[in-house]
Amino acid sequence: MNKILTRAATVSSAVIAMSMVPLAGTSFAASCSGAGCDNQGPRATACETANVSTERTIDNNGRKAELRWSMGCTAAWVRVTNNSSNSLYNSFGYIEKYDVSGKLIRSLSIRVPSTTGGSDWSNMLGGGGYYYRVCVSFVGNEYPMKCSTKF
After folding, report:
1. How far apart are CA 45 and CA 111, in angstroms?
2. How far is residue 34's CA from residue 72's CA, in Å, rounded to a whole number?
3. Which backbone phi and psi does 13 adopt, to 5 degrees?
4. Quick check: 74 and 34 in contact, CB under 8 A?
5. 141 has pLDDT over 70
6. How far is the C-alpha of 122 from the C-alpha of 43, rounded, in Å?
7. Average pLDDT over residues 57-77
8. What is the pLDDT of residues 10-48, one digit of tens each?
9. Are 42 and 77 in contact (CB under 8 A)?
10. How far apart are CA 78 and CA 100, in angstroms?
11. CA 98 – CA 106 distance, rounded (Å)
């Protein structure tokens, strides 16, 4: 009888443990929405996989900034990639959030090391009913900062 109870307990423990392991391909709901996503990371909140699109792209001498928009989170961020053959300078990406009157509400930035092919993304700014734009620059006076149109 003790062997049967021990085996039953072992099987029960295994079943409980297996039920807590997510299956491959399981999607997780994003952990923020709208302005609740402000200054949170798109990966940490699962927003980077919540119906994401690239709404604007701007290039500044091989340094590309993309305005990434998560419909699932109603939030945006800037992704910067350094594709310049001159990797002497770090790249800087900015995302800006504007109200309907055109007033800048908040901005966030990210620095991408000068390594060619290096990329990184900022934290998010969120909320419907706002306008967003991204900008890209790099250290040096040869090229001014470039910004996308608002989305």
Report:
1. 21
2. 9
3. -65, -40
4. yes
5. no
6. 10
7. 95
8. 444 444 443 433 433 344 578 999 999 999 999 999 999
9. yes
10. 20
11. 7
CA 116 remoteness from chain centre: 21
DSSP of the chain: -HHHHHHHHHHHHHHHHHHTSPPTT-----S--GGGGTT--TTTTTGGGSSEEEEEEEEETTEEEEEEEETTTTEEEEEEEE--S-TTS-EEEEEEEE-TTS-EEEEEEEEE-SSTT-EEE---EE-TT-EEEEEEEESSSSS--EEPPP-
How close are the terminal C-alpha atoms of the chain, in Å?
Answer: 69
Quote the tokens at residue 121. Answer: 């993304």
Close Cβ partners of 127 (under 8 Å, ≥ 6 residues apart): 34, 35, 38, 74, 75, 97
In whole numbers, what is the pLDDT of the chain averaged over residues? 83
Query: CB-based contacts of 147: which residues, under 8 Å, 6+ apart?
Result: 58, 94, 96, 133, 134, 135
Q: How far is CA 98 from the centre of its chain?
A: 19
The strand order across the sheet containing 131-138 reads 104-112, 91-98, 131-138, 146-147
Other CB atoms within 10 Å distance of the CB of residue 115: 11
